[in-house]
Design a protein that fits this description.
The protein has one domain: TIM Barrel (Alpha-Beta Barrel), CATH 3.20.20. The N and C termini lie close together (7 Å). Strands 1-2-3-4-5-6-7-8 form an eight-stranded parallel beta barrel, surrounded by five helices. 39% of the residues lie in helices and 16% in strands. β6, α8 and β7 form a beta-alpha-beta unit. By secondary structure, it is of the alpha/beta class. It binds 2-phosphoglycolic acid. The site of 2-phosphoglycolic acid has 13 residues, from β8.
Amino acid sequence: MTNKLRYFIANWKMYGDLPSLKVLKDINFFLGKNKKTYRPKVVACVPSTLIKMFSIKMRDSRISIGAQNCHLYEGYGPHTGSISTLMLKNSGAKYIILGHSDNRQEGETNQQLKQKINLSLNQKMKVIFCIGETLNERKKNKTYNVLTNQLNNILNKNLNFNNIIFAYEPVWSIGTGKIPKLLELEKVIKFIKNFLRKKLKIAKYPKVIYGGSVNPDNVHIFSSINEIDGFLIGSASLSSKKFIDIIKNYYR
Ligand code: PGA
């Protein structure tokens, strides 16, 4: 069992309401009971409607609250229906998911993402930046080109890479029950780490987590890849039992 810090990040997407706080309370209870056994960092990226309330209720807990996206402009402005990084930060968000394929598919561009990353880091939120190839791109052997392109587009020497967690999420794996072959996954994760370290001329490898159909039954096999710094978990994160079992089974 590794004693390295591992991220277990819940992405609730467009699910959850006030009573869903119970899910986080149960997970927190489990983390408190097992604090000597495991060293996970748990983050719950919940809908914007819940950030404020959950941040207050979970203030003294082992769980940090995060957001799932933001608007392109900082502060306040005439953008109907939008929420800025300043507003998210003031609501209590400590983390923010950016570049999720759900949003990229709805038209979010690399250029916009570059801006959103800067705004989020300015607000001192940690960014969970998602990258990954579609099934079509994979079939055409374009995985590495796609990843390089997605990374190159946001890189800039002034960014504080200590505050960015890279989430490799193959689009074909999200919500499908399909996961990459272990060897393939190991290669991709190492590629991302090496690419970023070289490109940014940094001493430490950046954090890279995996996301896509992670569940209590498959998580243990990922523990053989030491380079994976954790997981971004979608549907299984809506159930405290599944989320706790993911943590248990990872460290089994
Ligand atoms: P999934 O979603 O775990 O339901 O596949 C992952 C994600 O979208 O981040």
